[in-house]
UniProtKB/TrEMBL annotation:
<dbReference type="InterPro" id="IPR044925">
    <property type="entry name" value="His-Me_finger_sf"/>
</dbReference>
<feature type="region of interest" description="Disordered">
    <location>
        <begin position="140"/>
        <end position="171"/>
    </location>
</feature>
<protein>
    <submittedName>
        <fullName>Endonuclease I family protein</fullName>
    </submittedName>
</protein>
<feature type="signal peptide">
    <location>
        <begin position="1"/>
        <end position="25"/>
    </location>
</feature>
<keyword id="KW-0255">Endonuclease</keyword>
<dbReference type="InterPro" id="IPR007346">
    <property type="entry name" value="Endonuclease-I"/>
</dbReference>
<dbReference type="Pfam" id="PF04231">
    <property type="entry name" value="Endonuclease_1"/>
</dbReference>
<dbReference type="GO" id="GO:0004519">
    <property type="term" value="F:endonuclease activity"/>
</dbReference>
<keyword id="KW-0732">Signal</keyword>
<keyword id="KW-0540">Nuclease</keyword>
<keyword id="KW-0378">Hydrolase</keyword>
Length: 261
């Protein structure tokens, strides 16, 4: 792995501005451009597109250990306004990178695709895939638990804007699309051909321990409502260049969600 240091030089990335890296680790493999990366998927739709993307994002991936995830999240989710902090997914709170663990008000590693949905625990692979692991407040993480995603419920007192009921969790508006695209990534990345369960997004809640998460129709709405922003695009780039060497295609090509689902 390598750590990229960032300087205040703006590069145009679609319609948003992101920071430019200043250094590359010596001997690190060169990563293809996003255009070259998706060459095998261009022009495809439906099952053919999904199969092509699965092959692309499963190729030459560096798998992290669960302990390495702590270090990765301190880079991928760094607060651009305070480089000593990370931004917590559900609350939006900026918190010291070092203040992580299992105590109340610390941050821990949230599996957005709940690890019980497919029973992959924290085993290297889906259990350590940083594309769906995010820093969250310990108490808020516990309140979300392993619930599916849907709209409605009672507002979380510690993370206003997030709602929950018996079988679902609704994240705040600012990250609704982020959550949806993480779920879509996991559904395409893990197809049951690598010793783990075939993870599939579906249009229901209450999936329990089945390798499914919903609710697809709501997640698609959130994807449209909250398109990729600079923070999410930067995160995708850092995971690709510095850690796992694969990308979330639904951040780079949001239109592919409708082409598959």
């Amino acid at each position: 792995m390598r750590i990229t240091r960032w300087k205040p030089v703006a590069l145009l990335c679609g319609a948003v501005l992101v920071a430019a890296p200043t250094a590359v680790a010596v001997g690190a493999p060169a990563q293809p451009s996003a255009e070259d990366y998706y060459q095998d998927a261009i022009g495809k739709t439906g099952p053919e597109l999904e199969a092509a993307l699965h092959g692309i994002i499963s190729r030459d991936v560096t798998t992290l250990s669960y302990s390495q995830v702590w270090d990765a999240l301190q880079v991928t989710d760094e607060d651009p306004n305070d480089t000593g902090n990370v931004v917590l997914l559900y609350s939006g709170r900026s918190q010291s990178k070092d203040d992580h663990g299992g105590d109340a008000d610390q941050w821990n590693r949230e599996h957005v695709w709940a690890k019980s949905h497919g029973d992959f625990d924290t085993v290297p692979g889906p259990g350590t895939d940083v594309h769906h692991l995010r820093p969250t407040d310990v108490t808020v993480n516990a309140d979300r638990g392993s619930k599916d995603f849907d709209a409605g419920g009672t507002e979380n007192a510690e993370a206003p804007g997030n709602f929950t009921d018996d079988d679902s969790w609704e994240p705040r508006d600012e990250v609704k699309g982020d959550v949806a695209r993480m779920i879509f990534y996991m559904s395409v990345r893990y197809e049951g051909d690598d010793g783990f369960a075939d993870l599939e997004v579906n249009d229901r809640v209450g999936n329990g321990s089945a390798p499914n998460i919903g609710k697809l129709s709501v997640l698609k709405q959130w994807h449209e409502q909250d398109p990729p922003d600079a923070f999410e695009q930067h995160r995708n780039e850092v995971i690709h260049t510095d850690f796992q060497h694969n990308r979330n295609p639904f951040i780079d090509h949001p239109e592919w969600v409708e082409d598959i689902w």
